[in-house]
Amino acid sequence: MISILGRGTKLCDGITRRELMRVGGIPLFGGMTLPRLLYADRSQQPGGQSGGKPNGPAKSVILFNLLGGPSHIDMFDMKPDAPLEIRGEFRPIQTSLPGLQICEHLANTAKWMDRASLIRTVTHNYDAHNPLALMTGFAGGEFQQLIPKSSDPPDIGAVCQYLGLGPRDVPGAVCMPCYPGWGDGYRRPGPYGGYLGSQYDPLFSVCQPTLQKREIGKGLYDPVLPLGDPLVASLNVNVDLDRRRSLLEQLDHEFKVAESSPAIERMDHFQDRAFALLSSSTARTAFDLSQEPAHNRDRYGRNLFGSSLLIARRLVEAGVPFVSVHFDTFKNSAAWDTHGNNFGLLKEVNLPILDAAFPALIQDLEDRGLLESTLVIVMGEMGRTPRVFKNRSFGDESGRDHWPACGFSLLVGGGVKSGTVYGTSDKIGAYPIDNPVAPADIVATVYRLLGIDPHLMVPDQLGRPRSISHGGAPIERIIG
Questions:
Q1: Using one digit for the tens of pLDDT, what is the confidence trace for 336-380?
Q2: Which of 114, 255, 274, 467 to pair with 9, CA 20 to 30 A apart?
Q3: Residue 317 exposed, middle or buried by CB count within 10 Å (0-12, 13-18, 19+)
Q4: Pairing relation of β-strands 60-66 and 374-379?
């Protein structure tokens, strides 16, 4: 029996639960711990496609999630000929793609539309403020589900980690600036390992932004600009590395008496992986924005979400396969959930942040030769109601409510076809009239671009095979 750091009760394979948890509790950049690596059972993994690593045009994915439900009709699917209560206050402008118009407050983004694929008919029935559907493809979740569950399906990042994508000295998935829901004090479903296990959760950064509030007397719907950078929770992991290595060397000695245990065989591999992450500066360096030129920081925008996208580019350079950045609510700010002051929030904060950071990211990736191998996605969990209404709780503010029946997804790079508009909504942007796209179809498209079979099956909690794209089919017409 192992006797490090006290006594404990044996597990069925001879390892004591207390000792495994004590030694396994070493933090790995805040979101990962040794148990998540040590318990990972690669013996059940498919080992890539047809016995090898996935080989698609996209080597990495950056998802910019506009959490709350971005108004498609005020951004990428404007209806200038509709009545005022439908079309709203913004005017359309021409883009670099002939015949395509988008919002006047997305002038920088407009210059890149000839390189993008724009989907205007994302539709589903999952009316919940979380990224579960868009990150997993599963849109049959619990109505208004607020917290992640172990029975949830794994997200794209978890599947990337399950398949062993990316270099051994960086995480397979990173989530910034914190877990979705951090601004409201709880974790929203989406970026987790789900029934594959928490060992496939991403590395979560943390944040403590300064809030630059522009008070105009609208409470929750006042524009608020979050300033600051995401941080890795355990940047100083090397401080006690020698002591921790000593503990694990003791484990190695004790484990020699139980070499036949399947758990021990797994731990050999994942201890190596754990030490590689603990001792490597690669992931930690990616978060050090002091290495970026001042003009580049300015291009992205010196705010929490601009900084997050800049770090996302640095993580892609380091080889991280999946990075999600969540433009979330924070400290009594509605962000993209614009039930009130829809046009003020979009014009004064949300669209300027998006229109600086997104084009800067695309330009940065192209300048570094990474755009063709990096898929960038911008979308939210739903669209918003075509009709503008007066929110009686907030005077005469103009707002739009939830509308999962129609929304957008913008994709650039990573094997996506340039200059494509897919799907048409009706004359008021309420419903698709052709080519409806489910979240599962977008997820299946991402897997195809990564070179992963979208019909791949993985085991759920009961060992039953489940599709990673939940019946979705790749959208062939947007694949280059």
A1: 999 988 999 999 999 999 999 999 999 999 999 999 999 999 999
A2: 274
A3: middle
A4: parallel
Give the distance, in angstroms, between the CA of residue 132 and the centroid of all CA atoms in the same chain: 10
Tell me the C-alpha distance between 415 and 445, whole Å.
Answer: 10
Q: Which residue has the tokens 């791949």?
A: 456
Cα–Cα separations (whole angstroms), residue 77 to 177, 235, 359, 405, 424: 28, 42, 19, 14, 9
Reported pTM: 0.83
Q: Which helix (H) or strand (E) holds 248?
A: helix 241-255
- CB-CB contact of 82 with 428 (8 Å): yes
Q: What is the DSSP string of 420-447?
A: EEE-EE-TTSSSEEE--B-HHHHHHHHH
Is residue 20 classed exposed, middle or buried when 0-12, 13-18 and 19+ CB atoms within 10 A define those classes? buried
Name the superfamily (CATH) of residues 60-235+287-478: Alkaline Phosphatase, subunit A (3.40.720.10)
Cβ-count burial 181-190 (b if 16+ within 10 Å, e if not): bbbeeebbbb
**Using an 8 Å Cβ cutoff, are 136 and 194 in contact?**
yes
CA distance 196 to 462: 10
User: Is-contact 438 451, C-beta < 8 A?
Assistant: no
Bridge partners of residue 458, in order along the sequence: 466
What pLDDT, on a 0 to 100 scale, did the predictor assign at position 173?
96
Q: At what angle do helices 17-24 and 241-255 cross, to 10 degrees?
A: 150
Q: Cβ distance 175 to 312 under 8 Å?
A: no
Structure tokens at 266: 């797994």
Q: Report the candidate in 451, 397, 346, 358 with the shortest Cα–Cα distance to residue 112.
A: 358
DSSP one-letter code for 412: E
pLDDT of residue 52: 56
Could you state, in order of their start, the residue ranges of all structural domains in the chain? Answer: 60-235+287-478
Torsion sign across C-alpha atoms 191, 196, 197, 202: negative
Burial class (CB in 10 A: 0-12, 13-18, 19+), 254: middle
- 172-220 per-position pLDDT tens digit: 999 999 999 998 888 999 999 999 999 999 999 999 888 887 766 677 7
Residue 59 CA from chain centroid, whole number: 16
- Exposed / middle / buried, residue 462 (Cβ in 10 Å: 0-12, 13-18, 19+): exposed
